[in-house]
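Per your request, structure below.
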């Protein structure tokens, strides 16, 4: 009897490996599909969505880390998995049909959405709904692969631009520098600056949001605390942008106008992104107080 049990367990393990290989074949096959390849190349060259390539790696790591809770006892779920897979295929077809008349953002948002639906659908199909519930965070984390549609992207940029300008207006008086504000334009002694859309910091905002969602999942047990941590990204990003703009302006006024065209201006976002992380740290610490499930 014990020998028969060992044989059955070995067969189940072998089947699980087969299902895992079949599941991994789905994203591999999608990566070979021309619209998906074009989408990945576009994100690589995009000023806002270069993070996309990291998302599936993070999801894969989280699934691997919790594999003992996800895969044991898994079984097929043909109906929900097949429905999701069919929806993903329909979205791919819709993206191909809409490509000639839509912006790249909108087309690639639809392509990425279809990829996420197909991956989730194939997971449910092969491993079942119980396994999906156990792996729902890393699977739904793939939603960060979807770029914002053009209209939504413009609205987010406008909100970040205006919020950053408001923080600039609050920070300049603290420096003692006389300033005259006209909307997003600030007139300083011998210098006028405009908080342009390029100063919105949407790229760092997305990166900070992804970091906050991941940190909330790892360190916070309450849903409302995770939501608060994610919502804190917006004012923190605006404040960080305000500090960056004020710092560059002061350097240009009192040291060298070249700072406005320097590498600190063009590529110094990482320095102020670290500042945003430092600000988010105490927020996470306060939310984590009293939590009963610390994780590394």
């Amino acid at each position: 009897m014990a020998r028969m049990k060992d044989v059955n367990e070995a067969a189940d393990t072998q089947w699980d490996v087969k299902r895992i290989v079949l599941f991994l074949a789905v994203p591999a096959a999608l990566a070979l599909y021309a619209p998906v390849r074009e989408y990945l190349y576009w994100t690589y060259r995009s000023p806002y969505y270069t993070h996309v390539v990291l998302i599936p790696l993070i999801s894969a790591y989280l699934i691997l880390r919790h594999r003992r809770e996800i895969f044991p006892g898994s079984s097929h779920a043909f109906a929900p998995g097949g429905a999701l897979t069919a929806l993903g295929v329909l979205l791919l077809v819709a993206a191909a049909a809409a490509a000639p008349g839509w912006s790249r953002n909108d087309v690639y948002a639809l392509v990425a959405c279809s990829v996420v639906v197909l991956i989730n659908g194939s997971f449910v199909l092969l491993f079942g709904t119980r396994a999906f519930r156990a792996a729902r965070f890393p699977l739904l984390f793939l939603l960060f692969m979807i770029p914002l549609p053009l209209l939504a992207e413009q609205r987010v940029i406008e909100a970040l631009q205006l919020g950053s300008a408001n923080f600039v207006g609050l920070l300049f008086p603290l420096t003692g520098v006389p300033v005259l504000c006209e909307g997003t334009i600030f007139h300083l002694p011998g210098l006028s600056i405009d908080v342009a859309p390029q100063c919105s910091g949407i790229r760092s905002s997305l990166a900070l949001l992804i970091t906050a969602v991941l940190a909330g999942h790892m360190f916070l047990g309450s849903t409302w605390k995770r939501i608060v941590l994610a919502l804190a990204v917006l004012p923190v990003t605006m404040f960080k942008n305000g500090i960056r703009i004020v710092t560059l302006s002061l350097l240009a006024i009192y040291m060298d106008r070249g700072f406005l065209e320097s590498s600190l201006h063009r590529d110094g976002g990482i320095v102020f992104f670290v500042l945003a992380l430092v600000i988010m740290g105490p927020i996470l610490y306060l939310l984590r107080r009293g939590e009963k499930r610390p994780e590394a």
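The chain has two domains: 2-145, 152-288.

Regards,
D.
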